[in-house]
Amino acid sequence: MTTLTDLLCLIRLKGCALIAIILLFACPLYGKRKDDVVTMKNGDQFTGEIKAMQYGELIFKSDYMKDSVRLDWKRVERLQSQDTFIVSLTNGTRVTGLIGKETTCSEDGKDFRIVGEGAAVEVTISDVIAIGQRETSFWNQLTGSITYGFGFASGNKETNSSLGADVAFRATKNSVQLATTSQFGSQSNAKNTNRFTFDSQYARLLTEKWLAAGLFSLLRSNQQDLALRSTYGGAFGRKLVQTDKTALTVIGGAAFSHESYLPQPGAESIHNNAESLVGVTFSTFRFKTLNLRSHVLVFPSLSDPGRLRVSSQSGLRIELTRNFNWNFDLYENYDTRPPVNAPKNDLGITTSIGWTF
Question: Does the N-terminal or the C-terminal CB of the chain have fewer CB atoms within 10 Å?
C-alpha cells in the first residue's frame, strides 16, 4: 500500500518533469515583425502580429492588447504581412511564403496570395484551412501541450495520477509528432496500477492526398502483465477529408512488435510478432472551444494468424481560457490472444487540466 510519503514523492517527481518540459519547449518567439495589417469587413483595422489561423479563427496580437484576439477568418477583408508562413490548403498541400489578401478579386475569385521563392500561389480564402508562423529557430516551430490530473477518494483511500505531454513539428512536406503519458493508481487492499506510453510518428506528403508514414511506440502496462512492448511500423496513408475544422486520414502498412511480459512459470516471457497495420485518424473542432480527436490502430498478426491487437486513443478538449483547457481521454489496448496468460484488455479514462503552447 502506498504511504503518504511515497505519494508526495510521486507528485514532486511529476511536478519536476512538468517544469522540465515547459522550460525545454515553451521558448519565446523572436524576430517576428509587428507591422502585419488586418482589415475586417466592418472597417476595423489592426496592426500587430499574425500568430496563426486555425479552426476558422485568425489569432492576432497587437502591442496594445493584453492577450491575443481571435478574428473570424471569413470576415477578413484585407491582410498583409512581410513574414513567412506555412499555409495549409484544402487540397492537402502546404505552401511556404509571404501572405496577403486583397479586397479586389480576380475573375476566378482568387483573393488570397502566397508568394514563395520565385513563385506565387493564388487561392480563395475558403481554400485556406490553417496558417502557421515559419520560425527561424527549430525550437520555436514546435507546438504541443502538457496535461496533469489527480484524484483522491477517502472511502477506499484510492488515488490516481496522470501526466501527459505531446509536441509536434510541421514543415511544408514533413511533420513529426511525439506524445507520452504516464498513469498511476493506488487503492487500499488492491494492487497498484501503472501504465506508460510513448508514441512517435513521422509523415511526409507525397502528393496532395497521399503520404508516407513511420511510427514507433512503447507500452508498459501491469494491467496486461506487459513489462514492455515496442512497435515499429511503416505505412502509406490517404487524406479523405481535409477542411478548416475536420480531418480524416486512413493508413495501411506493416509493423513489427517486440514484447516482454512479466515472468510466468512454464511460459516464455519474450515474444516477437510480425503484423499488418490499418489505422484511422479523425479530428474535428466544434463550437469554438471544443476539440474532438480519435486515433485507432489495428494490428492483425502475420506470424500468429488469428491474433489481433487494437490500440485506440480518443479525447475531448474544452478550452477554459487562453491556452488552458480541460481534457477527457479514453484509451484502450485490446489483444484477442495474448501469448501468455494475461488479461486481454487494458481500458481507462483520465480527466486533466492542460496547457497548450
Answer: N
pLDDT band at 162 (very low <50, low <70, confident <90, very high): very high
Query: Is the Cβ–Cβ distance between 156 and 187 less than 8 Å?
Result: yes
Rounded CA-CA distance 357/355 in Å is: 7
Closest CA to 217 of 275, 268, 150, 146: 275
Four-CA torsion 73, 74, 76, 81, nearest 10 degrees:
50
- CB of 308 closer than 8 Å to CB of 344: no
pLDDT of residue 264: 84
The CA distance from 326 to 208, in Å, is: 34
C-alpha cell, 157: 483511500
Longest alpha-carbon distance in the chain = 78
d(CA 290, CA 246): 12
Give per-residue pLDDT as tens, 317-328: 988 887 789 999
* Backbone dihedral region for residue 332 (phi beyond 0: left; psi -120 to 50: alpha; all else: beta): beta
* Structure-block grid coordinates of residue 336: 484477442
Amino acid 298: pLDDT = 97
- Sequential DSSP letters for 188-251: TTS--EEEEEEEEEEEEESSSSEEEEEEEEEEEEGGGTEEEEEEEEEEEEEEEEE-SSEEEEEE
State the Cα–Cα distance between residues 112 and 285, nearest whole angstrom: 23
Q: Which residues pair with 136 in a beta bridge?
A: none
Helices (H), the chain: 4-25
pTM, two decimals, is: 0.75
Domains present along the chain, CATH in parentheses: 4-26+140-356 (2.40.160), 36-136 (no CATH)
